[in-house]
Amino acid sequence: MPNPETPKQGLVVSSHGRHVVVEDDEGERRICHSRGKKNLTVVGDRVTWTTSAHEGTIVAVLPRHNLMYRQDEIRIKSFAANLDQTLILLAAEPEFSERQLARALIAAEAQSIRPIIVLNKSDLGALFQSAWQRLAPYRDMGYEVLGISLNPSSENASATASTESTATDLTRLEALLADKTTLVMGPSGAGKSTLINRWVPHAMVATNAISKALNSGKHTTTSTHWYWVGTNRHTALIDSPGFQEFGLHHIQPTQLASLMPDFRRHLGRCKYHNCTHLHEPGCGVISHMKTTSSALYISEVRYKIYQDIFAELSAIRHW
Fold first, then answer.
1. How far is it, in rounded angstroms, from Cα 146 to Cα 162?
2. Among candidates 281, 262, 264, which has minimal Cα distance to 272?
3. Does residue 302 have a pLDDT over 90?
4. DSSP 241-290
5. In this structure, what is the dihedral angle of CA atoms 13, 17, 18, 23, given to the nearest 10 degrees?
6. What confidence tier does 292 reach under pLDDT thresholds 50, 70, 90?
7. Is the pLDDT of residue 217 over 60?
8. What is the SS3 assignment for 154?
9. Are 76 and 184 members of one domain?
10. Pick from 83, 64, 261, 62: nearest CA to 181
């Protein structure tokens, strides 16, 4: 047992209100609490902490490389810190919200976190093909977009997302996850738990064990959890609660276009240096929105999303 007064470093692997679970460098985990009234740590944080007989105390949070979070008019919701990438899992059914997707991508771009878009349920045929077509602008922007089926009975089906089969995209996804820390996000019903359990079969066992230790089961679906893939602890998946709304109140309206790749590639081509890309003559962005035959086009849906978010963020600054 280490001296309780000697701080040691660890990794936050789960968060439950004022309590967190910290893993030390040997892989042992302990429930810890913050010294203050609020828990300022998130999953993925490296912390210093002291141990006692039954629990630990967080002393400090080490500097973060990044933080994936959302902010609305009421609160800030932090997902995880020190990420290599985020996997945004969508499904052909239920129908995904492109506005929700765009907001998650903008939040990732703001923190320089690489996004991977994965569309599940390729076994649904026409429904999947329709959803896949809706993601065409994101493939054209250069995002990694994969089509998979997490339904075991259709894993080897011949349905394709583009020119690659489901099996090939699953292999590609596994390669993208290797040796990375990946936050898995997505709306309810997309198959997030199934995806986590595919690579971490013991995930639910680990989650339930933590809930039992805290004498509560209510955290199982509302907390964020870190899972190691394999035993070498090089690849990690972070399971986050499903999101319905994704506030971007921490983004400045003038910053928005630079966080949207289809807009960003046209910046600097406007007549006015302070162009909002909404109504100004000689706007390089608007001209490409109108020219859909161009390889650098901006879809009408994406432009409307930009308009709506810009108006929302501008209104916040005038309260």
1. 9
2. 281
3. yes
4. ---S---BTTS-GGGGGGGSHHHHTTTT-SSSTT--SSS-TT-HHHHHHH
5. -10
6. low
7. no
8. helix
9. yes
10. 83
